Amino acid sequence: MLHRLFLILLAASCLATLPPLSAAAEARETPLEKGVTVPVDLDDLPAIGVEHVTINLILHRLLDLRSAGSTDPRFSVDTPLGPRRFRPAAVRELDEEVRALNRRGVKVTAVVLNPVSAEAEANGSPLLHPDTDVQRAPNRLGAFNLASAEGRSWFDAFFAFMARRYGDPASPHGHIAGYVVGNEIPSHWIWHNMGEATEEEVARQHAEELRRAWIAASAEQPEVRIYTSLDHVWDTRLQPDPLRFTGGRFLLDRVVELTEAAGGVPFDVAYHPYPKNLRDARFWDDPWAMFGHDTPFITFKNLEVLMAYLQRPPLRVGGQPRRVILSEQGLDAGDTAQSEDLQAMAFALAWQRIERMPGIDAFIYHRHVDHRGEHGLKLGLWTEDPDADAPSVPQRARPLHRVFAAAGTDAWPAVYRTAQEHLPAEALALAEPRPGPFPEHAPQWAPGATVLPRSVGLGRGDARATVSDALAWSLDLAATTDGVLPALYHHPPGGGGVSTATFDIAAPGPSPRLTGAVDLKVASINGLRFAILSGDDLLWEATLRRPGSQPFSLPLAAVDGEPLRLGLRVDGLGNGGGDQGLWLNPTVVPADR
């Protein structure tokens, strides 16, 4: 098995050499820092060469919201609204955690999270954004409350206290080098909930979070790094709902504009380049990751697109690109020895690529040990003990553990050479990052895939739908003979029933048109009937028995700016729900387009 070959190679004298580094790799100012998230066995960290970890800081566990809290000045920050106090026991526990990591030569970056506590759910909290949906927030993580003077006071005091206590590398309490403000802001409904909010509202909220965090922390710790948090979703949305999801590209551009208008904030980027499919380690096969600035996703496959994008002058700070840490990303190991080997090989390729990308300071792998609560994902360097009472108790080191240990050492050439022997040609073609420059429009897109100004790209999630009775409704891609098109995946209900997605939009000009096509993603029994409605009126319908796109271009009776209701309907024709449909690039365009 492949992992046995890794063990042999690591035990042997590593004489193999790699080809000379590219000019980009030679331009790296400092070695790429290797790290893990949520470390469990701290003694394992030096054994595998860990230099950088992220830890989570939970606001309500550290802050003491009671008026009768500790009066010890060591655990308090004075503010115009009075002292803001911290829980001494929780702070001392954090001291020990940070010191234990520092003693092992490990840099610490903290991810600041704002969960919905039981107390907040029952009685509210000055820490939570006032529009956080405390009942429906999927992961019970809220945005920060900057809407009230009290909320701003707690927020500012938190960052001031943390920087004062942990800002000096020689601090007896330990050293924290930087702070990630929130988690995966583009998918804000899931990870940074402020209720249903427009893209602009999310950008303004997060720009102010970064600005205030920077001002408060840098006053105590001038070298502190403050990071935004971006997931792998770039120029699309994770789901087709513009009030719950946005893309990293829009958010980054707009937050930079807003912070620059407010005087400038030298924030950096904590990026998560997971594969698009979290359960498939073969990131090189991902059609969603393209080599153009309008790529839907940026993953391990095309991370150089992000680095090139950050070179743009409007995004720079003091003439220099913002720095990047890869603060959370992992590869699923599956359930077999073969899939564990694949995980190890995929990591080898990812490290080989990223080590050759200047501007990325750290590759912090997620995660050290599997966690049973992570939706079945098995990302860890270690498996977890299923019989242990607590989650993430390490049981067995995977092949990835040895490959990870070799990364950045003299053993790496031999380990990577072994991975090369088993990786497919399309994966090896990615080993050296593409130099760019990259086009604005990725060459994989079919003609017409770009949504023009004043148009509404339903297939890109630009409008919200109310969806009835669908087994599945999501953004998708459709391969055509001319390239890739954005699409909406529409799976009717079981039993061959009917599902309708209804959009209410403002007409983009007088006499607009709805253009696009339909196709079958899966053809099972007797096909689907597609129908398009304007209000209650049937505009168009077509029945497909087998895959093959059928276009439509329909005039819409609407006045510029007035409400327009469109329905996209699929009928399973009583076939038991096996057939599944695609709406290819449905777009409402002005009459002059």
From TrEMBL:
<feature type="domain" description="DUF5722">
    <location>
        <begin position="30"/>
        <end position="423"/>
    </location>
</feature>
<dbReference type="InterPro" id="IPR017853">
    <property type="entry name" value="GH"/>
</dbReference>
<dbReference type="Pfam" id="PF18989">
    <property type="entry name" value="DUF5722"/>
</dbReference>
<keyword id="KW-0732">Signal</keyword>
<protein>
    <recommendedName>
        <fullName>DUF5722 domain-containing protein</fullName>
    </recommendedName>
</protein>
<feature type="signal peptide">
    <location>
        <begin position="1"/>
        <end position="24"/>
    </location>
</feature>
<dbReference type="InterPro" id="IPR043780">
    <property type="entry name" value="DUF5722"/>
</dbReference>
